Automatic annotation (TrEMBL):
Catalyzed reaction equations: K(+)(in) = K(+)(out)
Organism ancestry: Bacteria, Pseudomonadati, Acidobacteriota, Terriglobia, Terriglobales
Major location category of this protein: membrane
Subcellular location: Membrane
Membrane spanning stretches: 6-27, 39-60
GO molecular function: potassium channel activity; proton channel activity
Pfam family of the protein (one): TMEM175
Family, similarity comment: Belongs to the TMEM175 family.
Species this protein is from: Alloacidobacterium dinghuense
InterPro entries assigned: TMEM175-like
GO cellular component annotations of the record: membrane
Thylakoid as UniProt keyword: no
Membrane topology: Multi-pass membrane protein
UniProt name for this protein: DUF1211 domain-containing protein
Keywords in alphabetical order: Ion channel, Ion transport, Membrane, Potassium, Potassium channel, Potassium transport, Transmembrane, Transmembrane helix, Transport
Amino acid sequence: MPLWPTAITYVASNLFIAIIWINHHYLMRFAVAPSLKLIRINFVHLFMVSLLPFATAWIARTQLASSP
């Protein structure tokens, strides 16, 4: 029972990453030829998504406190 904040934030982050992954694949179907700019934007996007576990770990650690 004391791990419920960790479990909830893990499920929420996994759901969020799944939604991003589905949207990413849907949008990339419309890219005819990937340009260098599109590849760079894609790498930045993937980097931002990779930061999600750190944010959810912080939320679980503070147990959804109003201030850090």
